[in-house]
Structure formats: C-alpha cells, structure tokens
Amino acid sequence: MKVFLAVISLMVLMQTDATGKRHKMRTHVRNVQGDDPLLEVEPIPPDTMIGPCSCQCCENAPEPLVAPKCANDIIVAVDSSACFRDHHSKMMRFLRRLVRKIGRTPNIQYGGDETRLGLMQFSSDILFPLHLSSFEDYTNPSTRKGLMNGIDEAISSLGFLGEGSFLNKALNATVSHFQNEPRPQALLDQISPTTPRPVVILMTNGKSHPSVTMDDIELSIAGLQAAGVTVIPISVTRECHGVQNEVWNEGLCPDTIILNKLAKVGRGDSSTFMEMKSHD
Ligand SMILES: *[C@@H]1O[C@H](CO)[C@@H](O)[C@H](O)[C@H]1NC(C)=O
C-alpha cells in the first residue's frame, strides 16, 4: 500500500513535460534521502529547465537552488454509486491514506503556493465536500498540520450515496470546478512563471448508468483535454478475467477500455489505469 501511494504522489509530482521529468525524479529521490533537501538539489542545465515544476536559473548558477515547488490543483473524485456499497469503507481508508501521502510528499504538500485539494463525490448527484478554494485557498490555516486536520474532517463527512453513476457529468463537473475556483492573483504571482496544473485522481470502475454512452464519455474526455487536465484513474476493483467465483459480480468489474482512455488524458498514450490495492 505504501509503495503504491508513493507512486501516485510521484506521478502527481512528475507531471511535467518530458524534459523536466528525468530531472524531477532525481531531485525528488534525493530530497527524501538527504537531511537538508537544499544541499542535494543540483542546478538544472539550461536545455532541460523549462517545465511546470522545474525552476529557471541563471547560467552557471553557483548558489544552491531552492527546490522548485509543484503547484497542483488536485480533485480527488470518488465514485459513490450503488455498486460500491460494500467497498465504501475501504475506499475511504484508501482516500485518507492517499491524501495524507500527498500532504507529506516534498514539493506537493498542501498550501497556497503548492497543492490545493478538492474532494468530489459522485453518483447521480455530484457533491464537493471540500472545495479547491477551501481554507482561504489553502493559506488559512497556514500550517500543514492545520490543513491536514481540516482535510481529515472533510473526509470523515463523506457518507455513501448509492444510485447510478454518471461518469460523464462527474468528469465535466471537475472541469467546471477548476474553472470556477482558480487561485487568486496574489497566489498565482507567488508561483509565477509556473501555473497550477489541474489533476483529477478518479476512484471508480469506469461504469455508468446504462443511459450514458461511449460517445458521452468521449465528449467529456475531449472537455478534459481542452482544459489541460491530467487524469489518474484508479480502479476500485481488480480487473476481471471471466467468472471468478460464486460471489462474482460483473457490475463491479472495471471497464478497462474507459479507464485506459482516461489514463491517457494529460499523460500520453502509454499510460494505463491503476488498481486500488485491497490489502496493506
Ligand atoms: C460534457 O462536456 C463536453 C465538453 O464540453 C460537452 O460536449 C458535453 O455535452 C458535456 N456533457 C454533459 C452531460 O454535460
């Protein structure tokens, strides 16, 4: 479980362009190991320094760089439709760990100049138990501990919804939320010249109410792409390979086609969806 959550954090951290990617991996790993992260950060050669999470520095930079922060707007979208009735508490445990893990990862932890978090729950309704602009855009409380406690409280308030899932509407709602709750100019100035990157971490099996067609999903995917959103889909259940046992339930099996389409949004053609691990 720990390793898996770390992978998601790293994915959030490393969603830079291809040139920034290699560098981020290196600094991140060193940051974790070294006592003083600043000692370990190397200047970025000029040809690889452009990227949302890399910083720009003068040539021949002699002085140590401040580790670049990654400004992410992350919405964790949780499918709470009827088929997940028996999975709700497991999903909430996973969510809590994921959110804590993000808060502890250097350079993506919560704050007005780093990560803002939104929580969305969906089935036939769409709820935002935590808005991206909560806590005065993550500046108050300004301590990480205070923010973590506030987020924990929001997660505790999530009940089970039931009914059918409308994934197309849910995906569209994330795009609207990013657009309706941008960071205020003062916070944008702090992270300039980078701009916050919108990321959706989606916990679902990719299935929807029968009235939702593949075309509907494709339209929503086009909307996400147009808005520059990165999607990290996490399947709540494991991929099914035929009837497995007497309690096997086709409705729970992930729709791997839809999940893999979503995995490519903002992350390139080789990306695939992940599975929520049920054991630690
Ligand atoms: C979702 O957004 C897309 C792109 O903006 C749009 O074409 C589609 O009609 C929307 N779907 C719903 C159900 O609102």
SSE map:
Layout: H1 2-13, H2 18-33, H3 37-40, E1 72-79, H4 88-104, E2 116-122, E3 126-130, H5 134-138, H6 144-156, H7 167-180, H8 185-191, E4 197-204, H9 214-226, E5 230-235, H10 256-263, E6 274-275
Helix pairs in contact: 1-4, 4-6, 7-9
The structure holds 2-acetamido-2-deoxy-beta-D-glucopyranose.
The site of 2-acetamido-2-deoxy-beta-D-glucopyranose has 7 residues, from helix 7 and helix 9.
Describe this structure in words.
- With 280 residues, the chain is α/β, with parallel strands linked by helices.
- It has one domain (72-275): 3-Layer(aba) Sandwich (Rossmann fold).
- The protein has helices at 2-13, 18-33, 37-40, 88-104, 134-138, 144-156, 167-180, 185-191, 214-226, 256-263, and strands at residues 72-79, 116-122, 126-130, 197-204, 230-235, 274-275.
- Strands 3-2-1-4-5-6 form a 6-stranded mixed beta sheet, with helices on both faces.
- Helix 1 crosses helix 4.
- The relative contact order is 0.14.
- Residues 16-52 and 54-59 have low confidence and may be disordered.
- Bound molecules: 2-acetamido-2-deoxy-beta-D-glucopyranose.
- 2-acetamido-2-deoxy-beta-D-glucopyranose binds at residues 168-169, 172, 219-220, 222-223.
CATH topology: Rossmann fold
Structural domain count:
1
Q: Helical content, roughly?
A: 25-40%
Report the span from N to C terminus.
5 Å
- Strand residues, percent: 5-15%
Largest sheet, strands/sense/barrel: 6 strands, mixed
Q: Which residues form runs of ≥5 with pLDDT under 50? A: 16-52, 54-59
